[in-house]
Amino acid sequence: MNDFHIDRRQVRHNFSRAAVTYEQHDALQREVQSLLLERLDFYLQTPERVIDVGAGTGRGSALLKKRYAKAQVLAIDLALPMLRAAKQHMGWLKPFGRICAEATALPLPDHSVDVLHSNLCFQWIDDLSALFGECARVLKPGGMLTFSTFGPDTLKELRAAWAAADQQPHVSRFLDMHDLGDAMIAAGLRDPVLDVDRYTMTYSEPRMLLKELQGLGATNADHDRERGLTGKRHYRQMLAAYENMRVDGRIPATWEVVTAHAWGPPPGQSRRGKDGGEIASFSVDSLRGSRRR
């Protein structure tokens, strides 16, 4: 479905290193989080288990625990230092669990999750089939998936500025909303709804944007990125190209944000396997009493 790959080790390294600085730079993440919480108004049941995938420093997990006080809330992240930092948001009366794991290999039983929430994490996963297949696996029938991710116009100014300096990929690439929707349907998720919003953040100079990206851990994790140090000449050329994009004295940076929700498939609904075939699952209880005639 896509022609690029994410270096998962680099993603883990970036976010592990950013655990202590993340919340100094997460204004956009907090804003998008509020949109995801609004989508949960569509979920009318009382959940027993809620998971926050890519929980980071746990702000979203704490908000989910506040909303669903009686539910088991689990913060899941691939970077252990992030989960350690999340402890600061755990209350004595409303604690949440913490699990170090990847979104494509959740250590949870089939059909055991009522609400699967993920804020600005899925853009760091290139195998959409595995990702949404895992979401469909752990969700209960009728359970809710709600997530946000970055779209392809994210950081388009920075990408253009680097393109003026050299032809190496310096900015991670992100998938289109239509690719996400197709992958959700292929995994068997029901009635997906996706929306796109664009935010423009401004900075006094390009270096402030780069400092923010590093503080968030949102630096380039493209598998085909240049491994060596960027030359000073190319770096200066990039800064000069970005300076030409000033608007009203400020440096702009676009963030294209896709927010979405969908529902866990009913028992036995088929989904596409990695080999292109279809897979259907049934509970043992549903087969009891059946016999060959």
Automatic annotation (TrEMBL):
<feature type="domain" description="Methyltransferase type 11">
    <location>
        <begin position="51"/>
        <end position="146"/>
    </location>
</feature>
<keyword id="KW-0949">S-adenosyl-L-methionine</keyword>
<feature type="region of interest" description="Disordered">
    <location>
        <begin position="262"/>
        <end position="293"/>
    </location>
</feature>
<comment type="similarity">
    <text>Belongs to the methyltransferase superfamily.</text>
</comment>
<dbReference type="GO" id="GO:0008757">
    <property type="term" value="F:S-adenosylmethionine-dependent methyltransferase activity"/>
</dbReference>
<dbReference type="GO" id="GO:0010340">
    <property type="term" value="F:carboxyl-O-methyltransferase activity"/>
</dbReference>
<dbReference type="GO" id="GO:0009102">
    <property type="term" value="P:biotin biosynthetic process"/>
</dbReference>
<dbReference type="InterPro" id="IPR013216">
    <property type="entry name" value="Methyltransf_11"/>
</dbReference>
<comment type="function">
    <text>Converts the free carboxyl group of a malonyl-thioester to its methyl ester by transfer of a methyl group from S-adenosyl-L-methionine (SAM). It allows to synthesize pimeloyl-ACP via the fatty acid synthetic pathway.</text>
</comment>
<dbReference type="InterPro" id="IPR011814">
    <property type="entry name" value="BioC"/>
</dbReference>
<dbReference type="InterPro" id="IPR029063">
    <property type="entry name" value="SAM-dependent_MTases_sf"/>
</dbReference>
<keyword id="KW-0489">Methyltransferase</keyword>
<protein>
    <recommendedName>
        <fullName>Malonyl-[acyl-carrier protein] O-methyltransferase</fullName>
        <ecNumber>2.1.1.197</ecNumber>
    </recommendedName>
</protein>
<keyword id="KW-0093">Biotin biosynthesis</keyword>
<dbReference type="GO" id="GO:0102130">
    <property type="term" value="F:malonyl-CoA methyltransferase activity"/>
</dbReference>
<comment type="pathway">
    <text>Cofactor biosynthesis; biotin biosynthesis.</text>
</comment>
<dbReference type="GO" id="GO:0032259">
    <property type="term" value="P:methylation"/>
</dbReference>
<dbReference type="InterPro" id="IPR050602">
    <property type="entry name" value="Malonyl-ACP_OMT"/>
</dbReference>
<keyword id="KW-0808">Transferase</keyword>
<dbReference type="Pfam" id="PF08241">
    <property type="entry name" value="Methyltransf_11"/>
</dbReference>
